[in-house]
Design brief:
401 residues
Length: 401
């Protein structure tokens, strides 16, 4: 897989200096903040002017800009990078992503019994072999930061520090569609919710200070427009949305947007209710008991997220690690469930599948079928574990405790 990724990178090597990666939008936001124009953070005219200054060729190829669509507080990360040229800033951000990725094994290994014994180099190879992580690195995306925050969240939960886990989750609100569903699933954990809301409130005030009331209140309207107006680059290929919305959009005719939104809301509500149900059935005591639930909520969050592309699937790395650990060291699991989970992990790790679905057919949304099967398999795993333990899920405790 890594050799294949290297080949893909070689083929796309000229696109990085031209400004085609997604990092262009983030770098633009950093320049806007550097120049003291935070109130115009979501101004398309200003964004286009800035992007043309360093990636005019990319705009010509895309025929559009890459708008900055995340919450204002995240733009603070890119403001220091705006003091460098685009290519230098891209290299710095790539280095930051590599550092975050390299820290993930150190966060997780002590919490795992069997996989924690694997050599560090195998962990790093596994990270680089996962196509969504490779895509996030090349695109200069912030999905690896979100994966890091989720790993920190899991580590805090494993250690029994729910307040800290909620705080870590809140830091990922720049991609709130990949955070809020999981928070809702854990709504009964009051300390987690308290930590989440406290940090979220601070980030809200920071965002307000950056943009002011007028721009911040207009953000939801701007976000909705960028999500549905085909003039924006990332909306030209709706088949690349690998979630429930992507699946629904492949069935409902384009002319019936209201039906697509309605069906997406219904199916998302069903998945979210299943996540809440599973969270309610899992015992609150013991870190090992959280492994299948946390993996389930991660997969469910990806499914119900409204905006999701291949690099966002990076967070599934943590879900797959937790599932593999259970399959290797947990209690007896029905063979059918075990087979289903292993096949799903194999498909999610198959880089040729991503390349064929993305580059050949523009149908990455079919990957959502794998995620649905994975989700059902995890529900079955949780139910089988509850049956073995008299109603509470309790696999063996982690080795690092």
């Amino acid at each position: 897989m890594i050799f294949l990724h290297g080949y893909v990178l070689w083929q796309a090597r000229r696109s990085i200096p031209e400004g085609l990666p997604d990092f262009s939008g983030s770098y633009t936001a950093g320049q806007i903040l550097r120049d003291g124009h935070g109130s115009q953070l979501y101004d398309d005219v200003l964004q286009e002017s800035i992007q043309r200054s360093f990636s005019a060729k990319a705009i010509e190829k895309r025929r559009t800009i890459l708008p900055y669509i995340h919450l204002p507080y995240e733009a603070l990360l890119y403001a220091p990078l705006a003091h460098f040229s685009y290519l230098t800033a891209y290299a710095i951000w790539l280095t930051v992503n590599l550092a975050l990725l390299s820290s993930i094994p150190f966060l997780l290994r002590k919490t795992l019994n069997r996989l924690g014994q694997a050599p560090l180099y195998l962990w790093l190879l596994a990270c680089f072999a996962f196509f969504p992580i490779f895509s996030a690195l090349i695109q200069g995306q912030d999905s690896i930061l979100l994966l890091f925050l989720y790993c920190a969240t899991w580590r805090s939960l494993e250690r029994g520090s729910e307040l800290a886990s909620g705080a870590w989750l809140a830091l990922g609100l720049y991609k709130y569609q990949l955070v809020v569903p999981l928070v809702l699933a854990f709504r009964r954990r009051k300390k987690l919710i308290a930590g989440f809301l406290s940090v979220a409130a601070i980030l809200g005030f920071v965002s307000l200070a950056i943009t002011g009331w007028h721009s911040l209140l207009g953000y939801p309207r701007y976000l909705w427009r960028t999500e549905h107006d085909l003039k924006y680059g990332f909306n030209t290929l709706p088949g690349l949305i690998a979630n429930l919305r992507g699946l629904v959009s492949g069935v409902v005719p384009k002319a019936h947007t209201e039906i697509e939104i309605g069906l997406t809301a219904v199916f998302s509500a069903i998945v979210l209710l299943m996540m809440m149900y599973a969270a309610g059935k899992v015992s609150a005591a013991g870190s090992g008991r959280l492994q299948p639930l946390f993996a389930l909520t991660l997969v469910g969050t990806v499914l119900v997220s409204y905006h999701l592309y291949v690099h966002d699937l990076s967070v599934l790395f943590l879900a797959m690690i937790l599932v593999l650990e259970m399959l290797l060291s947990g209690p007896p699991i029905p063979q059918t469930t075990k087979t289903v989970l292993l096949v799903c992990i194999a498909l999610l790790y198959c880089s040729p599948l991503y390349l064929v679905l993305t580059l050949r057919y523009n149908q990455l949304r079919l990957m959502a079928i794998v995620l649905l099967v994975f989700f059902v398999g995890l529900l079955s795993l949780i139910n089988s574990l509850r049956a073995q333990t008299g109603g509470t899920v309790s696999p063996p405790a982690s080795a690092g405790r």
